[in-house]
Amino acid sequence: MRRRWVGAAGAVVAAGAVAAGVVGIGGTAAAQPQLPPVSPEDLVASVMTAQPGPFNGTVGIDNELGLPALPGAPQLGNGSQSARIWSGGDGKGRVALPSGEGEKTLVSDGTTRWAYDATERTATRSTGGAPEQKDPQSDPAGAATQMIGELRRTSQVAVDGTAEVAGRPAYQLVLTPQASERTLLREVRVAVDAEKRIPLQLTVLATGSATPALQVGFDDVTFGPQDPSLFTFTPPPGITVKDAPAREGRPDDRQGPPPGTRTVGDGWDRVIVAQRPAQQPGQEQQRPEGAPDLNALGSPVSGPWGSGRLISTAVGTAIVTDDGRFAAGAVPEQVLTEALAR
Fold it and tell me: Signal peptide span per the entry (predicted)?
């Protein structure tokens, strides 16, 4: 229930590749290194086929979306967050997510994934292939690569000089929405490692703003073999171990859009329309303790699709309808209402 509630409350920044995967990267750039010229097409192609091998690093998020802190998803709320990640290749990885009261740890050996919450003393196990939608905090390079692949067809792509990021020389790849795209975003800038060709930094800028609305990525990164023991997990004594429920129609428990979710449009003006968690007749919708009430967020709005609440941030909007739906994207309100009416 907590995961599903957070999905509804944070829908405005979880709308497909644009609202969920489009993020920026913290850190400052040093003097521009001298690198061989590369065309935008060749740079994009090299990113899509990059095989960086094992690495570890520190990931930082700087969030100025204007959302309150949400239980289970602190990266959606305003402020700075950090995480430590290790990648062993072949789907093996480890992520340490510090929190105010403890730490959450995500571990995958390539087949089985564990999510351990030291505060709640629980460990959740899931199996199957790698997640379809990359998490920007636990896999910033993968999330940025996925975003480039989904946006390049509806973008003007350019290389705008070089930078030093996380101590490594990088090319600055810039994606700008084509004139036909109805989006609140102005551009996305991706710092691509000159040697490994994986994204090190990705900065998103909203129309009318000179400062990034959301930033996430490597503060430091080191490539090379990792300790194999990092990618195994043994539940500590005395904790509750449970299996993550497989989604209907997805017996391998792969992550992806839940049943009832549909996508309207593509590229920059993509909208995700989904159903909010079901509740028993006559019962009030439950939410995690301390979480904001969805019915109190935003402002009233109505149209041919019905009525609900409009929630706006620097890079996106969401409509939570009174009949249990929500629509979200990095788009103006009009695009959401058209999607709901379909």
Answer: none
Say what the pLDDT of residue 222 is.
96
Q: Is 124 left (phi over 0), alpha (psi -120 to 50) or beta?
A: beta
Three-state secondary structure readout of the chain = CHHHHHHHHCHHHCCHHHHHHCCECCCCCCCCCCCCCCCHHHHHHHHHCCCCCCEEEEEEEEECCCCCCECCEHHHCCEEEEEEEEEEECCEEEEEEECCCCEEEEEEECCEEEEEECCCCEEEEEECCCCCCCCCCCCHHHHHHHHHHHHHHHEEEEEEEEEEECCEEEEEEEEEECCCCCCCEEEEEEEEECCCCCEEEEEEEECCCCCCCEEEEEEEEEECCCCHHHHCCCCCCCCEEEECCCCCCCCCCCCCCCCCCEEECCHHHCEEEEECCCCCCCCCCCCCCCCCCHHHCCEEEEECCEEEEEEECCCCEEEEECCCEEEEECCCHHHHHHHHHC
229 has pLDDT over 80: yes
User: Token digits for 62?
Assistant: 């700087």
| Whole-number pLDDT of residue 137 | 66
Q: What percent of the chain has pLDDT over 90?
A: 53
Evaluate whether 105 touches 92 at the Cβ level (below 8 Å).
no
pTM of the model: 0.78
Min mean pLDDT across 75-79, 122-126, 163-167, 260-264 is at 75-79
How many Å apart are CA 175 and CA 328, to the nearest integer?
21
Query: Which pLDDT score, from 0 to 100, does residue 48 have?
Result: 95
3-state secondary structure 212-232: CCEEEEEEEEEECCCCHHHHC
